[in-house]
Amino acid sequence: GYAILNSEIINRSEAKVDIEDRGYQFGDGVYEVIRVYNGKMFTGKEHMDRFIKSSESIGIKLPFSAENIMNMLDELVEKNNLKLGIIYMQITRGAAPRNHAFPVGDVTPCITAYTKEMPIPEANLQQGVKTILTEDIRWLRCDIKSLNLLGNILAKQKAAENGCYEAIQHRGQDITEGSSSNVFIVKNGVVITHESNNLILKGITKDVILRVCEEKQIPVEERTFTLEELAQADEVFLSSTTSEVTPIVVIDDKKVGDGVPGPVTRQLQELFKKEIE
Ligand code: PDD
């Protein structure tokens, strides 16, 4: 297949980066994962806006306009004949002699992107997934979609080793988010999810869910909730670009509610499906 390397679309096998690229050495960059349904980007603009926001927040200036990049991504999807899958895109500060401080002078940022076929995770959406709880050991700028994912990786690995799909992270008593997803609880018909501040990523799927809740007058509280509230929840689900609205039916070997996806989760899955049609 094809990949983007800076301003060019080239063969994936020819896309090479420098061993002193700061993304490789320091994780000095940001990324996005964008869903492609029916050969078209879903919420592409929102992802591009977040990409720009993330990169500006660490002082990387995009070498091309957002419009330019969007056009290239469209072309990439087309050339790869991608119908159902994802685009992975990242930008790093570029290659320079290793030094923690930003390189002085003109260093050209390095943009790469490629596509991958990915089916809709029907079994998970239908049956729900198992999860574990783990302390959130990440830094205090989780709102930046940074390439530095060690905290997230270690959490996800712990989940995998326990036969689980996701790790739900908490800072002390407060639930933050999954290792690669946002987490929601439902209590007495109210949908509750962590407010979008520096402690979580402002998920684009989360924002779609919050918008459809508003449209359908499903009550929402965007606020911090606790381990105790999680344990007492009627329903729990997670959201992400690749996981859509996935029910959580087990947390640390304990069933959520009666252990099957609940009615509000089902309703939100339906409403989300309508959004992607
Ligand atoms: N992960 N929180 C974290 C830490 C994430 O990594 C993600 C996405 C989300 C959900 O964001 P969105 O709805 O915009 O996908 C929340 C992507 C899919 C990934 O790293 O693969």
UniProtKB/TrEMBL annotation:
Gene, per the UniProt record: dat
Lineage: Bacteria, Bacillati, Bacillota, Bacilli, Bacillales
Keyword Transferase found: yes
Function noted in UniProt: Acts on the D-isomers of alanine, leucine, aspartate, glutamate, aminobutyrate, norvaline and asparagine. The enzyme transfers an amino group from a substrate D-amino acid to the pyridoxal phosphate cofactor to form pyridoxamine and an alpha-keto acid in the first half-reaction.
Cofactor(s) of this protein: pyridoxal 5'-phosphate
UniProtKB keywords: Aminotransferase, Pyridoxal phosphate, Transferase
PANTHER family in the cross-refs: AMINO-ACID AMINOTRANSFERASE, D-ALANINE AMINOTRANSFERASE
Catalytic reaction(s) noted: D-alanine + 2-oxoglutarate = D-glutamate + pyruvate
EC identifiers of the protein: 2.6.1.21
Domain of life the protein comes from: Bacteria
Enzyme class: transferase
PROSITE patterns: AA_TRANSFER_CLASS_4
Subunit structure: Homodimer.
Family from the record: Belongs to the class-IV pyridoxal-phosphate-dependent aminotransferase family.
Descriptive protein name: D-alanine aminotransferase
